[in-house]
Design brief:
By secondary structure, this protein is an alpha/beta fold. 44% of the residues lie in helices and 14% in strands. A 7-stranded parallel sheet has the order 3-2-1-4-5-6-7, with helices on both faces. α1 crosses α8 and α4 runs parallel beside α5. It is globular. The termini are far apart.
């Protein structure tokens, strides 16, 4: 006999946009959203072939309509177009996940203006203007929407080699609280996850750029309490819960999702 109980975190036919969803954490969130009942998904990123493959895979495996919209988050017009494209495909936006981000290394001594601008552009400016565009749609259509921002445990102060990254994520945390406050009477919720060190293709690329060997993960994992880096599917389940009506009325919450004490930076 099939159970009639709806699992916690069911999305009840919501339309969801997930940035940075051509790989890694964003892809895991998009797949989890489809599994949990999303009526439609927008996958975005800069890699056309990878994005189309993810969207097609989600649609084939779950039956959830999914479309890829190529988006360069350093370009304001493309950020705004992402919300427009979602409305063109599905007619509305119920949830936005700002999962895209870059963590290029830089200290207070060696960060130049170009690196600082890139990190702020992708990690803070893009989420700001995508939230702005999505909120306008939600308000116009009186949608009780949910926004989830992927921040970082480093937003508390962070490692010395992540100075501009820390600045961008600290800004995103403050922005999350501000948006939650300003939108509460519209019943549009905004929360964030302060995630820790996560195993993703982007992190692998960063480690390689730093000169670490291909076995960096095998060496890093034993240094952590759980014996592993955070895994995208673990985080994705929490994100989808925050998108769902099961997390109402939670808003303005910054949830630490890490295994290290906050004072252990380097």
């Amino acid at each position: 006999m099939k159970s009639s109980v709806i699992p916690i975190g069911h999305l009840n036919d919501k339309i969801i946009i997930v940035t940075g969803s051509t790989q890694g954490l964003g892809e895991a969130i998009a797949r989890q959203a489809a599994i949990c009942g999303a009526a439609g998904l927008i996958v975005c990123g800069r890699k056309q072939q990878a994005g189309e493959a993810v969207a097609q895979s989600i649609q084939t495996q779950t039956g959830t309509p999914a479309y890829f919209v190529r988006t360069d988050l350093t370009q304001l017009a493309e950020c705004q177009n992402l919300i427009t494209a979602c409305c063109d495909y599905f007619g509305r936006v119920d949830g936005l996940v700002n999962a895209a981000g870059i963590s290029t290394r830089g200290t207070i001594e060696n960060t130049d203006a170009a690196l600082f601008d890139e990190l702020i552009s992708v990690n803070l400016k893009a989420p700001f203007f995508m939230m702005q565009a999505a909120i306008k749609v939600m308000q116009l259509q009186q949608i009780q929407g949910s926004i989830v921002n992927i921040a970082s445990i480093s937003s508390y102060g962070g490692q010395s080699y992540l100075t501009p990254y820390v600045a961008s994520k600290a800004g995103l945390v403050a922005l999350t609280r501000n948006v939650a406050h300003s939108q509460k009477w519209h019943r549009i919720r905004c929360n964030a996850l302060n995630i820790g060190w996560t195993e993703t293709p982007n992190e692998h690329a960063v480690q390689q750029q730093m000169g670490k060997g291909k076995d960096w993960l095998q060496k890093a994992a034993p240094s952590l309490p759980s014996g592993q880096l955070l895994q995208p599917p673990q985080i994705a389940k929490k994100v989808v819960f925050l998108l769902s009506d099961d997390s109402v009325p939670i808003t303005g919450s910054i949830i630490d999702w890490d295994q290290q004490p906050l004072y252990c930076w380097d």
